[in-house]
Amino acid sequence: MALASATGSTAAAAAAAADSVSASGSGSGSLDDLRDVLRRLGRVVVAFSGGADSSLLAKVAQDTLGADSVLCATALSPSLAGAEEADCRSLAEEWHLRWVGVPTSEMEDAAYVANGPDRCARCKSALMSALGPLATAEGATVVLGVNVSDLGDHRPGQAAAAAAGAVFPLVEAGFTKDDIRRWSRELGLRTWDKPAAACLASRLPYGTPVTLGRLAAVEAAESALRSLGFVQLRVRHHGDAARLEVEPAALAEVVARRDEVVAAVRAAGFRFVALDLEGFRSGSLNRGLRTGAGKPGTSGVGEEAL
């Protein structure tokens, strides 16, 4: 598996890219730089989630290296919404990607199921364990769609992936999320404005065990809300209560359509439905890490408690 030699350079490139973006206030990623990174790697296995980031990476990799040198692999697990798996298959067909679905085993890991602050690291370790044999067979390097905008906040999965040999070409090329959406749009990729869709387990507060039932409830509730026309959203699982995060501009519509929204979420198995007035924000459950929620010797009640 052609992985380890690139890891150190990825870490250095990540730090340099983060410093550059911090100083300038914006990214400056170019397709030429991204293509150069990919050419240096030669053959790649793309961890393909179907989101804007990995989609751009997959498409540029294929256009640069050729289909025979690029394998796109989607991790199949209960934390991947069925609609997201279906979209991965559709994108692979539309773009003629060489694609495979790979079952991952994180639900067999007691530490992952316990849902501690290292959950993402456990998940990425499971991902790399699944993609490693593919990379070895391909004589390739595993690449992830991590970008410069992802380098902040609590993201232990990045460190776990890098430690296992994954490379982040978008980071090395200096791409921010805005760059990804801009270039995706210029290339005519329908994923350019696709809302971010983190794994379903990210909807559970740290310390709440990851179970098939909880993941299914979140997936059903979010799917029902999207069918009502709400696009960028999260349903945070707080036991019997669902805390809804939508774009601030959509808050008034949720209230106006309260009966529909409540019925949709309760049909997914929740007894209570709460609207978060702060609106949608990625990683909102990470606040609990900064308030001591769930740590021994505390009440376990942080800013995330309802």
Chain-wise SSE layout:
Elements: H1 4-24, H2 31-41, E1 44-47, H3 52-65, E2 70-76, H4 82-95, E3 99-103, H5 110-114, H6 119-138, E4 141-143, H7 156-163, H8 169-172, H9 177-186, H10 212-227, E5 233-238, E6 241-246, H11 251-256, H12 258-266, E7 272-275, H13 287-291
Parallel strand pairs: 1-2, 1-4, 2-3, 6-7
Antiparallel strand pairs: 5-6
Helix pairs in contact: 2-3, 6-7, 10-12
Q: In the CATH hierarchy, what is the architecture of the largest domain at level 2?
A: 3-Layer(aba) Sandwich
CATH class of the largest domain: Alpha Beta
- Structural category: alpha/beta
Give the overall silhouette. Answer: globular
Described by strand count, sense and barrel closure, the largest sheet is: 4 strands, parallel
What ranges have pLDDT less than 50 throughout 5 or more consecutive residues?
1-26, 291-306
**How many individual domains?**
2
The fold-level CATH name of the largest domain is Rossmann fold
Distance between the termini: 46 Å
Order of helices and strands: HHEHEHEHHEHHHHEEHHEH
Total number of beta strands: 7
| Number of H/I helices | 13
Superfamily (CATH H level) name of the largest domain: HUPs
Question: Taking all residues together, what is the mean pLDDT?
Answer: 87
| Fraction of helical residues | 40-55%
Order of strands across the main sheet? 3-2-1-4
Descriptive notes:
The protein is α/β, with parallel strands linked by helices and 306 residues long. It folds into two domains: 4-193, HUPs (Rossmann fold, 3-Layer(aba) Sandwich), CATH 3.40.50; 200-291, 2-Layer Sandwich (Alpha-Beta Plaits). The chain contains 13 helices and seven strands. It has helices at 4-24, 31-41, 52-65, 82-95, 110-114, 119-138, 156-163, 169-172, 177-186, 212-227, 251-256, 258-266, 287-291, and strands at 44-47, 70-76, 99-103, 141-143, 233-238, 241-246, 272-275. The strands form two sheets. It has a four-stranded parallel β-sheet, with helices on both faces. Strands 5-6-7 form a three-stranded mixed β-sheet, covered by helices on one side. α2 (31-41) packs across α3 (52-65), α6 (119-138) runs parallel beside α7 (156-163) and α10 runs antiparallel to α12 (258-266). The radius of gyration is 19 Å and the shape is globular. 44% of the residues are buried.
